[in-house]
């Protein structure tokens, strides 16, 4: 059997990603909490509840799990609604708790990446119209200043806003995230304000901490025309890909938000990106369909040959991650995979999904493309937004009732890769023998 090793550069960041609302529990001041109270909003009427009980202190045991698994980094988010429960009130105790968590990472030798906005808004902001409100960016800047001042001793890698593209699509076009709108004009207002908020946060971070690195994390969806010979499929693929993948990073590159409804100049956004966070999960085939005006005439589906996750939410398409990096090069900043993973309760597909995606990173690095780290989504099963508890993305399984954790084989697989800073043929032979030939052709 072939012996080989795909090695990663020294200093590569290896970890898992989490988000406050999904893991902390009892975030009663968030708009998501209010949204959950209507049982029609979340699959099976589920609630986040205690989530992974990190606010109750279980982050300690979960950080131990990560550290013992050779992860050298962790991406977590700060819950705005805890730090600023009312526009004129800061909760210093909450800031202390985050300080303690970050010290916990430091003690375990793990580099933190801190996200300032991961889908969750304070209820008071939502009641003022959320990110549709022209003042939202200024509010976000104030919150950012407070957090960066308080935590700068522990953090120098910041993610301003997580997936502004998915947040806008889900909340303002598909209506499945709060505030549940289907309103293109509102969506564009939100896109403009999120860009302003990102720029303001970026500038604030650098004013307080000049050596910091800050960037946004984008949900990159790989898309290819269903019929390669069809000009209409190409056209609709390009239109959708622009709207979903390009709009935000282009706005930051050019200082202009370009939308179907017009352009808005935001000069302070220009160049406000030290790295691009890439959240990559899957790839779509796109076909022109006149009967889908709500989807901008683009019907999307998975390649019928692709393996699907347990609820058919994702297709295993590792080459799409390579596309993401190739596309990301145009922004001339380092890239970090800020999320990648698969919902897979039985850990049937996750081992090969993980290895195949990491292999694409290795390929990109061998072209000298600047990919600097990888955060797996996620450490422990957690609350999956409008899909509730139906999707299990964790390296560890969680029983939300008893809070018991159980390690999935992928956790050990990932630990070995993190420890070795490499994918070895031994690891592939042990965990995913079915793809050995493909990974190490004789
Ligand atoms: C991403 C989100 C993250 C999680 C994963 C599965 O879009 O950023 O919070 O829900 O999907």
Structure description:
There is one protein chain. The chain has 15 helices and 15 strands. The protein is an alpha/beta fold. The termini are close together. Helix 7 (136-151) runs parallel beside helix 9, helix 8 (164-173) crosses helix 10 (231-254) and helix 12 packs parallel to helix 13. The protein has a single domain (5-439), classed as TIM Barrel, CATH 3.20.20.80. The strands form 4 sheets. It has an 8-stranded parallel beta barrel with strand order 2-3-4-5-6-9-11-12, surrounded by 6 helices. A two-stranded antiparallel ribbon has the order 1-15. Strands 7-8 form a two-stranded antiparallel ribbon. Bound molecules: beta-D-fucopyranose. Beta-D-fucopyranose (FCB) binds at residues 19, 22, 162-163, 166, 219, 279, 339, 377, 384-385, 393.
Task: Break the fold down into its secondary structure elements and pairings.
Elements: E1 5-7, E2 13-17, H1 20-23, H2 31-36, H3 54-68, E3 73-77, H4 80-83, H5 92-107, E4 111-117, H6 123-127, H7 136-151, E5 157-162, H8 164-173, H9 184-208, E6 213-225, H10 231-254, E7 256-259, E8 262-265, E9 276-288, E10 298-301, H11 319-328, E11 335-339, H12 350-366, E12 371-376, E13 396-399, E14 404-407, H13 409-420, E15 422-424, H14 425-431, H15 436-439
Parallel strand pairs: 2-3, 2-12, 3-4, 4-5, 5-6, 6-9, 9-11, 11-12
Antiparallel strand pairs: 1-15, 7-8, 9-10, 13-14
Helix pairs in contact: 3-5, 7-9, 8-9, 8-10, 11-12, 12-13
Beta-D-fucopyranose binds at residues 19, 22, 162-163, 166, 219, 279, 339, 377, 384-385, 393.
């Amino acid at each position: 059997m072939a012996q080989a090793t795909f090695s990663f550069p020294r200093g590569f960041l290896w970890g898992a990603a989490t988000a406050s609302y999904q893991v902390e529990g009892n975030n009663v001041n968030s708009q998501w909490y209010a949204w959950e109270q209507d049982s029609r909003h979340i699959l099976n009427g589920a609630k986040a509840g205690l989530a992974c009980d990190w606010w109750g202190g279980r982050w300690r045991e979960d950080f131990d799990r990560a550290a013992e698994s050779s992860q050298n980094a962790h991406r977590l988010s700060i819950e705005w609604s805890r730090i600023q429960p009312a526009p004129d009130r800061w909760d210093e105790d909450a800031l202390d708790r985050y300080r303690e968590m970050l010290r916990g990472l430091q003690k375990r030798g793990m580099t933190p990446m801190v996200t300032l906005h991961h889908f969750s808004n304070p209820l008071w902001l939502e009641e003022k119209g959320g990110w549709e409100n022209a003042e939202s960016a200024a509010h976000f800047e104030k919150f950012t200043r407070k957090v960066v001042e308080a935590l700068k001793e522990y953090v120098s890698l910041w993610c301003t806003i997580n997936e502004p593209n998915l947040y806008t699509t889900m909340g303002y076009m598909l209506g499945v995230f709060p505030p549940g709108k289907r309103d293109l004009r509102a969506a564009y207002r939100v896109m403009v304000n999120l860009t302003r908020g990102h720029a303001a946060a970026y500038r604030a971070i650098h004013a307080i901490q000049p050596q910091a690195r800050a960037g946004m994390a984008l949900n990159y969806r790989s898309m290819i025309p269903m019929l390669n010979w069809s000009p209409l499929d190409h056209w609709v693929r390009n239109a959708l890909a622009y709207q979903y993948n390009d709009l935000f990073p282009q706005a930051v590159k050019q200082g202009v938000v370009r939308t179907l409804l017009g352009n808005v100049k935001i000069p302070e956004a220009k160049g406000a990106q030290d790295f691009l966070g890439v959240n990559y999960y899957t790839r779509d085939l796109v076909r022109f369909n006149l009967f889908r005006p709500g989807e901008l005439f683009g019907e999307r589906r998975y390649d019928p040959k692709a393996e699907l996750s347990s609820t058919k939410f994702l297709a295993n398409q590792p080459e799409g991650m390579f596309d993401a990096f190739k596309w990301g090069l145009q922004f001339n900043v380092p890239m970090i995979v800020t999320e990648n993973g698969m919902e897979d309760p039985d850990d049937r597909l996750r081992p090969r999904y993980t290895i195949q995606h990491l292999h694409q990173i290795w390929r990109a690095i061998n072209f000298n493309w600047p990919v600097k780290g990888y955060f797996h989504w996620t450490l422990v099963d957690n609350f999956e937004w409008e899909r509730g508890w139906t999707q299990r993305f964790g390296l560890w399984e969680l029983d939300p009732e008893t809070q018991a954790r159980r390690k999935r084989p992928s956790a050990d697989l990932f630990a070995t890769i993190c420890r070795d800073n490499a994918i070895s043929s031994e690891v592939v032979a042990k965990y995913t023998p079915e793809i050995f030939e493909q990974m190490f052709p004789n």
